[in-house]
Write a sequence for this structure.
């Protein structure tokens, strides 16, 4: 990606990318309003932002064209699973607060399972396979969530930051998906680079 400012440019490419991330975030928020489309919307945002590494435009128009082309039954099923998972977690946490014996332990276990599910789902959205094959993306993300604990911590941090910004200033909720998608894309790219570096430094057998 070009990083230097050309003659006559008012803003450099990094500022342009920042503006693109915000516009993609707004487009993602609008596309996620039906809730069942949220995973596909976030996955599409990650794919659009991934394309900036190859100087492909990251515009809202291109985002909606790709989203319209890819929406299918599998995307809606992924959205239904995500909504059901969130509702189940909220119900479990509400049940734990009713004063039942062992409620604290139950709440902690439910929160841990919820965090793992959230990391897996978000990392799946950041993977290219999510464009065509959600089961493959989720399976790979589930393995990554355990193998790459640093990346998983970054995913939770990105999610917490987006949620905090939306809580502090509700209008930012319509822009937060952009930086979140950028973080998920960067974490996925980082993981691929780390794996390639590991394979490149692996000793080879002689004889």
């Amino acid at each position: 990606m070009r990083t230097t400012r050309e003659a006559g440019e008012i803003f450099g490419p990094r500022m342009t990318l920042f503006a693109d991330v915000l516009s993609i975030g707004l487009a993602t928020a609008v596309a996620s309003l039906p809730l069942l489309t949220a995973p596909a919307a976030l996955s599409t945002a990650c794919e659009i932002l991934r394309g900036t590494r190859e100087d492909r435009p990251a515009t809202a128009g291109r985002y909606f064209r790709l989203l319209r082309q890819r929406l299918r039954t599998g995307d809606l099923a992924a959205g239904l699973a995500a909504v059901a998972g969130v509702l189940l977690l909220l119900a479990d946490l509400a049940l734990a607060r009713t004063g039942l014996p062992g409620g604290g332990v139950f709440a902690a276990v439910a929160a841990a399972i919820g965090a793992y599910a959230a990391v897996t789902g978000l990392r799946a959205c950041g993977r290219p396979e999510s464009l065509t094959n959600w089961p493959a993306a989720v399976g790979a993300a589930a393995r990554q969530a355990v193998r790459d604990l640093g990346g998983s911590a970054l995913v939770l941090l990105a999610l917490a930051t987006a949620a905090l910004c939306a809580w502090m200033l509700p209008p930012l909720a319509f822009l937060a998906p952009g930086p979140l998608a950028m973080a998920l894309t960067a974490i996925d790219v980082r993981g691929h680079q780390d794996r390639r570096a590991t394979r490149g430094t692996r000793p080879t057998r002689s004889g």
The chain is about 70% helix and 0% strand. Helices lie at 13-31, 38-50, 60-70, 73-96, 103-125, 134-147, 149-168, 177-201.
